[in-house]
Amino acid sequence: MKLLPLITIVCIACSAISDHAAANAQSTPNDAINESINENKSGQFVLEQNPDIGQMKIAKTSELCSVASNTLDYLMLVDDNDAIHPGSVVNEQISLKDVGLTLAFICETYRQDVKNKHPGRMHDSEFLKANFDFYRWYPDKDYADKIREKSTNDVKNRLLNNIPEDKLFITKYYTKKLKASNVKTELYNQALYALPYDEQGMTKVEAENHKATLTRFKYTRAQIIDGALENNNLAKPLIWITEDGLHDVLLQGTGVLDVDGKTRYFNVHRNNGISYDYAIGKNQQGRYWYFAEVPSIMGYGNSMETKIAIKAHATFAGNIKQLGLGKLVMINYPQGQQSISQLGVLADTGGAFDNNLFQLDFLVDSYYGWSDYHQANKHLPDYANTWILIKKKTTE
């Protein structure tokens, strides 16, 4: 999405995003919240007056601004009740207008700093504490325990069991780099399929109304791998990859494919209606996604045409249904002798986040596989202090 000029962002965020009744209410003081909060803070958000956030680490403020601006465009221009709301879990006094002003402030600050040749203030922890309210996020360990009890994966069980009381489980996701072929070969024998022919031109609502007869809802991943679509000519193969590559792209949601030396991007479009099963591994999932070719890496959207263009190291995926799209998120963790914090915008989601308030997924980059991914990101932790940041209300 094209970035709006600064004045447009600020003015539209102030006027076009629908306000809520509590938009002008003052944030509850920290001590008042602490009086009402249960000793068990699992799944709760607590306003902190002076968070210890250490040293800021932002890859590029321009890319944080890009994701913020693209997400703000979505909030203003798209009809999507599932994502466009202030959230139901952080604080009832946060309005959708507050979310928009927070996103606009990121770009306002960045552009003023560039214009004035000023050091980036989004890298300044004291500036952030002076301009944002910090809502500390405590993981929903109760729900994590329920998932762990059903899981048969030892590594997943260990990671879920070890979630601290005060830190979120921070997974990392990346766009999968793959070699691919325009034609089927012995090696590249699995396709990324476009929507089936019988659904072409249908909106999501129209498709839901005809789901009993549509191809998309008939087959599991295993059946499609075995040739259910190909053998019956039910959908167009967009590109051909390996079976291992298919499982990776279905998990990550985006494929960055090298086709005869040219980079092409493919993003999930619509799925077969089977829920993601957190208790089993990626290769055993019944869930299957159909794809579309896109111009860049894309995040959340209720249609292929409205998906948000996102950037690595500036994007989180999470529970948008409960949190609301566009929340500014900070994670903090030790790195050597330092305390490091990073910012990103909640601009993506996935099936694993249904009812999940113990985890976020941080978009790191594009990689061919585990080895280059691990080498680049082994310093990142499994758990981190986490806050939702909301622009402080200005006093007249």
Describe this structure in words.
This protein has 396 residues and is an alpha+beta fold. 30% of the residues lie in helices and 24% in strands. It has a 6-stranded mixed β-barrel, surrounded by 4 helices. Strands 5-6 form a two-stranded antiparallel ribbon. Mean pLDDT is 89; it is low at 1-38.
Radius of gyration using CA atoms only = 21 Å
Q: How would the global form be characterised?
A: globular
Strand order of the largest sheet: 4-13-10-12-11-14
- Arithmetic mean of pLDDT: 89
User: Roughly how much helix do the residues carry, as a percent range?
Assistant: 25-40%
Give the terminus-to-terminus CA distance: 34 Å
Let me know the number of strands.
Answer: 14
How many helices does DSSP assign? Answer: 13
Largest sheet: 6 strands, mixed, barrel
Question: What percent strand?
Answer: 15-25%
Parts with pLDDT < 50 across at least 5 consecutive residues: 1-38
**Helix/strand/pairing category:** alpha+beta
User: Would you list the SSEs in sequence order as H and E?
Assistant: HHEEHHHEHHEEHHHEHEEEEHEEEHE
